[in-house]
């Protein structure tokens, strides 16, 4: 007679198969790998932030050095700006410095190239270091899949509005967008949303006109242009918040619809 408690004819408890044990060990290794990857990614971001904190006081000194480099000054500035983005160094002082050492159009060009290059480096770094780990961690969630897909489809609009908004921190957003399904092409095209703010701060840097004043903490004047661009940024903030909320709502509704359909299929089969 079969032992009901053991489920075997001889009363012995059934042993897990080798394939089952191997699968469990593989899943456990995958979870450890995901956690380690995320920890390494977080550690790298904190390391960049610490480096940026240490170097942030040297931005004006770097700009003074760039000014002495003659025809190569613009290229050195682009390289320094892109690395500053990776190192979480606030971009406002760098952009004001560009206005102080370059002509306005030239300053806008170099700042735009440097910020775009730096943000692209942060995006690609996050995409290749941590994106797979995020997918392994949350890929089984239908809600995450729906939201991730929706964000990817609306990538250009989302990034453009984020670039126009002054309330979303520039460097963290670069890394976080790299974890989503936003396409690199859309991400780069949306960089043109940085131009209004870039023009404003380069202009203010030109008005200040002196690196020594920047070293002493001089900042932009809050004139009509400042408030107009701030207003545009606040409108962009509201717009991107509404857009992200709608994406989340659509994702939840899609997930609920899938669950209802699955339940209806089970009921009809029963």
List the helices and strands and how they pair.
Blueprint (H helix, E strand, L loop, with lengths): L17 H38 L3 H9 L5 H14 L4 H11 L2 H26 L1 H8 L3 H12 L1 H10 L5 H9 L5 H6 L5 H14 L2 H5 L8 H46 L1
Helix pairs in contact: 1-6, 2-3, 2-4, 3-5, 4-5, 4-11, 5-9, 5-11, 7-13, 8-13
Question: Summarize this, please?
Answer:
By secondary structure, the protein is mainly α. The protein has one domain (37-260).
Main sheet record: none
What is the averaged pLDDT score? Answer: 74
Could you name the ranges where pLDDT drops below 50 across 5 or more consecutive residues?
1-9
Tally of strands: 0
Order of helices and strands: HHHHHHHHHHHHH
The chain-level structural class is: mainly alpha
How far is the first residue's CA from the last residue's CA?
33 Å
Structure characterization notes:
The protein is mainly alpha-helical. It has one domain (37-260). 77% of the residues lie in helices and 0% in strands. It is built from 13 helices and no strands. It has helices at residues 18-55, 59-67, 73-86, 91-101, 104-129, 131-138, 142-153, 155-164, 170-178, 184-189, 195-208, 211-215, 224-269. The model is unreliable at 1-9 (pLDDT under 50).
Keywords:
270 residues; mainly alpha; disordered N terminus
